[in-house]
Amino acid sequence: MNWNLFFRYFTRALLDIKLKLLVIFAITLGLLAIYLVLAKPRYETSWVMLLPGTERNSTINLDNLGESQSGSNNPYGSVSISPKNTYKEIALSDAVISTAAESYGVAANAFSKPRITLIDQTPAMQFTLKGESKENLRYRAKLYNDTFHNTLDQLRNNEIARNIEGVENNLSGAKDRLSKARQNIVSYQISSSIVSDQQFELWISDAEQLRTDNTKTLIDLAQLQATIATSLSQLGISKEQAQALLTLQANPVVTSTLSSLSIKLAEQANIKLLYASAHPARTKIERETASLTKSIRLLLDGLPQLRQIPDGQLYGLLASSNTDTIKSINQKLADYDGLAAQEFALKNSYANSLQRLKTHTIDAATLADLKRTHQIAEAVFSSALAKLDTSRLDIYATYPLTQLLTQPGATIKRSRLQEKLIIVAAILVYGLLAMTLILGGVRHSFLKDHELEMTTDSEMTATVT
User: Fold this and answer.
1) If phi over 0 gives left and psi between -120 and 50 gives alpha, with beta otherwise, what is residue 177?
2) Hey, which residues does 403 pair with through a beta bridge?
3) For the chain, which residues make up each domain, given as ranges?
4) Phi/psi of residue 264, each to 5°?
5) Strands 56-62, 66-72: parallel, antiparallel or unpaired by DSSP?
6) Distance (Å, rounded) from C-alpha 98 to C-alpha 96?
7) What are the DSSP E strand ranges found in 163-219?
8) Using one digit for the tens of pLDDT, what is the confidence trace for 363-394?
C-alpha cells in the first residue's frame, strides 16, 4: 500500500470537508450540552455487609445421659462454597426482587437490581443501588435490605423446622427402640433366674470365696492332723484309746480306785523291803493291790481299746499329770472332726456353685447382651434428645450471621457515570462521522483523479493516431 499517496488524499479530503467537520462538531457539542443541562441528576448509595468467618461449636454433656455436639465448619474453607457467592445469588434472585418490587408498588422488571461487589480476601459484600431521588433511593435501599434479610430469616426458619422435624422423627424411633429394649430385659428377667449382672457376679464371688475357704480348711486340717499324730505318737496310743482314756478320767470311781491303788503300790514297795514274801503283812498288801487292780480292769470291760495297754502305762496315762494332755488331744480330735465336716460342706457347696454358674452362664451372657442393647438404645435416645435442644442453639449454621458496616441509604452521592458515558459516546459518534466523511472524500478524490487520468490517456492516444 502506498502510504504517501494515501496521506496526500487524506489531507486533501480533510481540507475539503473541514467546514462540514466544524459544523458536525458544533451540532454534536450543542446536543451534548442540551442533554447535560436537561438530564435529571442520578444518585447512588452503597452499603457494606460483613459475614463472619470463624467456626462456631457448641457441646452439651449431661451426666448419665450422654453428649451432643453442634458445630459448623469454616464457611470460607472452599471458594466454591463461600457464603458470599450464595448470598449474592440470593440477593439477585427473582424471589427477593419480586418481593421488594411488590412492597415498593411496582412491577418486578421496574425495580432496578443492585450491583453487588465481592471484596476479595475479606468477608465483605458491597451493595450499590441507583435512583433519581435521594429520598426515593434511601427508601428503596432500606426496603431492599430488609427484604433480603427477611428472606434469609425465612430460609433459616425453614431449615430449623425441617431439622427439628427430622430430629423428632429420629427421637420417636429411638424412643421406640429404647422401650422395646427395656421390655425385652424385663421379660427375660421374669422368665430367667438371673435378674442382674450383679447377681451373676455375686455368684462368681461366692464360688471363689467357697474355693478359698475350702483350701484354707484343707490346710488347717493338715496342720491339725499332724499335731494330733505327733501328740498320739508321744503317748504311744491311738485316737480311739485317747477318747477312751478321756472317758475313764471323767469317771470318779476310776479316779478314786486309781488313787487307792497308787497308795497301796507305794505301801507294797515299802513292805517288800521290810518283810519276806510269806509275811502276813506282805501277803495282805498283795491281796489288796490285786483287788484294786482287778477293780480297775473290771472298769475297762466297756472300753476294749484300753486292754492292750500295759498296766504301768495305763496307770501313768490315767494319772492327774496327763489329764490336761488327754483333754487337749481329744479337743483337737473334736476340732479335726469339725473341720472335716466343714471341709465336706464347703466342697459340696463349691461343687453346687460351679454347677449353678455353668447352668446360668448362657443366661447371664444373654442378659448382658440385652443390657448392652438397652445401653446403646439409651445412648442413641439421649443423643437425639440433646440434639433436639442443641439444634436450636445455632440458627446460623447454613446461613451465617450478617453485620452491616454501613446502613443502607446512609451515604448518598451524585452518580455521573451516565454523563461520562454520554460524553464518551458523543466523542465516538463525532469521530466515526468525521472518519466516514474523510474516507468518503478520499475515495471521491481518488476516483476523480483516476477518471481524469483515464481521460488524459485516451486523448493522447487519439492524438497520436
Assistant:
1) alpha
2) 50
3) 17-42+427-464, 50-178+381-404, 202-361
4) -65, -40
5) antiparallel
6) 6
7) none
8) 888 888 888 888 888 888 777 777 666 666 56
